[in-house]
């Protein structure tokens, strides 16, 4: 490990939401919130879990570490300051930090350097390493996982009834979970619902409890009754397949003056040729039949929208 990834105590303190320590040799669960600074839901959910663990004196094995992702953007209540912190975890950027190279000189590159050191510092145990990256969306949405590291990650997501979105890592190679998976973490990017939906926080909290149990940090009996009851109630919206595949990405540049047409919900069905947005060159049509995914309804962001297809529909077409 190079000098660029040394973590000083002050750098850790400014992003630490809380930690609970059972034993050195057990599993590790790292919960990352507000990698986008305008998404506080995961932070509040983390605090609720910590309070509950304390109140009920729940015994823990291994380690639970809860961190703020983009501290600077969180303080500014902005998605990011200079660049999107969930788009820069590229192998060459990680390698530059390992060498102690601090370029480019952006707020997020510094956040990345500190986070990298924090993640390395948590990775000491070989009792299983889990990373949750908690997000919310600008459009109304049912919960979904943007990437499943492996089947263990998928099982956690299933408990909260999340739709699995496959193939997004190929369109967005700089996502944090891509980096974490490649370094041996069972990593899960989780979108709980819209920024404004009060249930997003409950969904994030439920996911954290399920991850604590799946990782083996707490026993099943320690999962609060309301979370287990919710698990039984949860059903996926019947019109949506449990897994979808990303088939199109519309990246944008700030100069494009991109404007999504109003009223699209995440996973809403769209037709080929349907006008989804406008920019300085005119209307933008969907190039495929499918569902619109992550339509952009906030000022910052470089992804206008994606188109996904139900995996079931894919299989039908392949067979035809
Ligand atoms: Zn986000």
- Could you give the distance between the termini? 52 Å
What's the shape? Answer: globular
Outline the low-pLDDT stretches: 1-5, 314-320
Which ligands, by name, code or SMILES, are bound?
A: zinc ion
The CATH top-level class label of the largest domain? Alpha Beta
Q: What is the name of the CATH superfamily of the largest domain?
A: Zn peptidases
Number of strands: 14
Computed structural class:
alpha/beta
Write the layout of secondary structure elements.
Blueprint: H1 9-13, E1 16-21, E2 28-33, H2 41-55, E3 63-68, H3 71-76, H4 91-98, H5 107-122, E4 129-137, E5 144-148, H6 151-159, E6 163-166, H7 168-171, H8 176-182, E7 186-194, H9 199-215, H10 225-233, E8 243-251, E9 259-260, E10 269-270, E11 275-279, E12 282-285, E13 290-293, E14 303-310, H11 311-319
Parallel strand pairs: 2-3, 2-4, 4-7, 5-6, 6-8
Antiparallel strand pairs: 1-3, 5-7, 8-14, 9-11, 10-13, 11-12, 13-14
Helix pairs in contact: 2-9, 6-9
Zinc ion binds at residues 36, 39, 135.
């Amino acid at each position: 490990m190079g000098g660029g990834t040394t973590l000083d105590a002050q750098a850790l303190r400014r992003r630490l939401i809380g930690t609970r320590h059972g034993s050195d040799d057990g599993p590790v669960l790292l919960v990352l919130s507000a990698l986008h600074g305008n998404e506080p839901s995961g932070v509040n959910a983390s605090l609720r879990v910590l309070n509950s663990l304390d109140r009920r004196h729940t015994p823990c094995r291994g380690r639970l570490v809860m961190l703020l992702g983009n501290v600077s953007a969180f303080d500014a209540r902005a998605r990011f300051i200079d660049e999107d912190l969930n788009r820069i975890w590229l192998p060459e950027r990680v390698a530059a930090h390992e060498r102690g190279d601090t370029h480019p000189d952006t707020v997020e590159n510094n956040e990345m350097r500190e986070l990298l050191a924090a993640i390395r510092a948590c990775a000491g145990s070989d009792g299983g390493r889990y990373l949750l990256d908690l997000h919310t969306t600008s459009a109304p949405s049912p919960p979904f996982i943007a990437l499943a590291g492996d089947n263990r990650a998928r099982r956690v997501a299933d408990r909260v009834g999340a739709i699995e979105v496959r193939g997004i890592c190929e369109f967005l190679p700089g996502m944090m979970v891509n980096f974490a998976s490649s370094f041996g973490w069972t990593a899960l990017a989780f979108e709980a619902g819209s920024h404004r939906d009060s249930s997003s926080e409950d969904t994030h909290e439920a996911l954290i409890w399920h991850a604590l149990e799946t990782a083996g940090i707490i026993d099943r009996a320690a999962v609060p009754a309301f979370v287990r009851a919710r698990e039984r109630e949860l059903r996926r919206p019947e019109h949506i397949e449990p897994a979808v595949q990303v088939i199109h990405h519309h990246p944008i540049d700030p100069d494009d003056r991109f404007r999504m047409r109003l009223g699209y919900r995440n996973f809403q069905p769209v037709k080929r040729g349907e006008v989804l947005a406008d920019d300085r060159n005119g209307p933008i049509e969907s190039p495929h039949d499918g569902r619109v995914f992550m339509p952009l309804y906030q000022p910052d962001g470089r992804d206008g929208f994606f188109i996904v297809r139900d995996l079931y529909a894919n299989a039908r077409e392949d067979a035809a």
